[in-house]
Amino acid sequence: MRILYAVVFIAFVSCYAPERNCEHFKTGTFEFETYLNGELAKTTFVRNDSIEIEYFQQKVDTSSIRWINECEYILTNLNPENRAEEKPVHIKILTTEKETYTFEFSMVGGTKKQKGTAKKTK
């Protein structure tokens, strides 16, 4: 009997697929919060289909967007101020909910991936 329950449980869990309504998050105004040097820092960004403008600590950056597929894109800073800002960033939307999405990001070609959650505000 336990084996039957285990098989049913595994079948149920393996059929679960997280929601990925990426189309809803291609454009709009978003907020992302993270801890930076022990303090909570907030970034606001506005995205249309091909440009993203980021507002962080009184600094404004503009990046081009190249969509790889419905849920992945490459951000390339249009006005880099140093070598680190020249490297494009690969972003992959992992899951979506009503007005938030969880994403994974890394430098293109890099192996270190980080995760975050963004909230759509407009």
Give the SSE map.
Blueprint: H1 2-14, E1 28-36, E2 39-47, E3 51-56, E4 59-69, E5 72-77, H2 83-86, E6 89-96, E7 100-107, E8 114-120
Antiparallel strand pairs: 1-2, 1-8, 2-3, 3-4, 4-5, 5-6, 6-7, 7-8
Question: Which labels suit this protein?
Answer:
122 residues; mainly beta; Lipocalin; eight-stranded antiparallel β-barrel; 8 strands; globular
Give a written overview of the molecule.
With 122 residues, the chain is mainly beta. Helices cover 14% and strands 52% of the residues. It has helices at 2-14, 83-86; strands spanning 28-36, 39-47, 51-56, 59-69, 72-77, 89-96, 100-107, 114-120. An 8-stranded antiparallel barrel has the order 1-2-3-4-5-6-7-8. The relative contact order is 0.17.
TL;DR of this structure?
This protein has 122 residues and is mainly beta.
How many separate helices?
A: 2
Share of β-strand residues: over 45%
Average pLDDT across residues? 85
Counting DSSP E segments of at least 2 residues, the number of strands comes to 8
CATH architecture grouping: Beta Barrel
CATH homologous superfamily assignment: Uncharacterised protein PF14869 family, DUF4488
The value of Rg in angstroms is 18 Å
Widest sheet: strand order?
A: 1-2-3-4-5-6-7-8
Shape summary: globular
Number of individual domains = 1
> Strand pairing plus helix content: what structural class?
mainly beta
List segments where confidence is low: pLDDT < 50 over at least 5 consecutive residues: 4-9
| Strand and helix order | HEEEEEHEEE
Q: How is the CATH topology named?
A: Lipocalin
Largest sheet: 8 strands, antiparallel, barrel
